[in-house]
Amino acid sequence: MNDIVEQFEITFNQIHQHLKELNGFPKNDNFVELLQRSKLKHSVIRIHFDQLKQYAKLRNAIVHERISGDYFIATPHEDVVNALKRIKRTLDQPPEALEFATRPVLFFKEDTALSHVMEAFDQHGISQFPIYTKERAFSGLLTNDGIVRWLSQNHKNERIVLENICASDVLPVEKDRSVEFLKAGATVFDLEERFERSLNENRKLKAVILTETGNPDDMPMGIVTTWDLIKVDRRESEED
Fold first, then answer.
1. Roughly how many angstroms between the first and final C-alpha of the chain, as a whole number?
2. Rounded to an integer, what distance in angstroms lies between the CA atom of residue 226 and that of residue 195?
3. What confidence tens digit (pLDDT) does each residue in 31-71 have?
4. Which residues form the CBS domain (predicted)?
5. 113 and 89 together in one domain
6. pTM of the model
């Protein structure tokens, strides 16, 4: 077999295997079908979708329209093979989620005055803070939406008194399961899968917190929001 054709086929088949893994080895493992599914979930595939779709057509021409022996109706250019290999390397070693996380993570204890937390929202332009107990166990994610909800429920005679109100007083109005945890070594695929799963379950995932082992009671090493996922698309586009 022509060497460049062989390189193309081997690399293409390796990418096909990655797509099967990313989609849980479905019964319908057609390359383009897997590509379409993966596009909705993973930035690497989304960025290279059109490119990979064209490579699939080329691959079909090579495999199914061979004239004889090593004589092919279509032969990939060396640049095409190199581009395919670059995509394959990214799938082999996807970026770590921590690369796209906000670091260091600013967090507060349950007994922190709400007024102080609100000042931090304004000062740092951050929309959520993890809250921990005195024993450093994760207590909840305090968000700007949660604070607004609490304020709307606790105004009296058009006045809101924040004296003696702590972060822990607001946490009960936060919606459940708005945060998940991953270990710091998780990949961007793991990260995207969490947000995709929450979307399929019709719940809003506010953030994914990265800790050393993925245990909620470990100290946070990074926090990722939906806005941070934009960084993934942007970097893939720049590297393409």
1. 29
2. 8
3. 999 999 999 888 889 889 999 999 999 998 888 766 555 66
4. 101-158
5. no
6. 0.80
